[in-house]
Amino acid sequence: MSTVQYRVVVAKGDERVEGPDDADVVVTVPLAELAGDVDPAVLFMQGKLKSTGPTGPLLERLRDGSVQAALSRLASPS
Questions:
Q1: Which segments within the chain are labelled E, that is strand?
Q2: Continuous segment of H or E residues that includes residue 44
Q3: Per-residue confidence band for 78, with pLDDT thresholds at 50, 70 and 90
Q4: What span, in angstroms and rounded, lies between the C-alpha atoms of 26 and 41?
Q5: Which residues have C-beta within 8 Å of that of residue 56, sequence separation ≥ 6?
């Protein structure tokens, strides 16, 4: 199974990261895009959620809700 790293960009040079540095897929989204109840799949289709690496593993995780869960954790103030 492919590994995924999630990055939520708070400001330039300030990112919240979850996942291994050598991940097969890297998902990046600005924190401002996560305000409210937004679906990460919609953000991906709008080009606001970016990814590098193969798309298949990303689509699987969008479908099973793991992208939503990870981004929610990273978007929450700690």
A1: 4-11, 14-18, 25-30, 50-52
A2: helix 40-45
A3: low
A4: 15
A5: 2
Q: What does the pLDDT look like over 17-65, one tens digit per residue?
A: 999 999 999 999 999 999 888 899 999 999 999 999 999 999 999 999 9
Q: Burial of 45 by CB count in 10 Å (0-12 exposed, 13-18 middle, 19+ buried)?
A: exposed
Domain boundaries, the chain: 4-75
CATH of domain 4-75: 3.30.1050.10
Residues of 17-33 as b/e, b for ≥16 C-beta within 10 angstroms? eeeeeebebbbbbbbeb
Question: What pLDDT does 8 receive?
Answer: 97
**Amino acid letter at 36?**
G
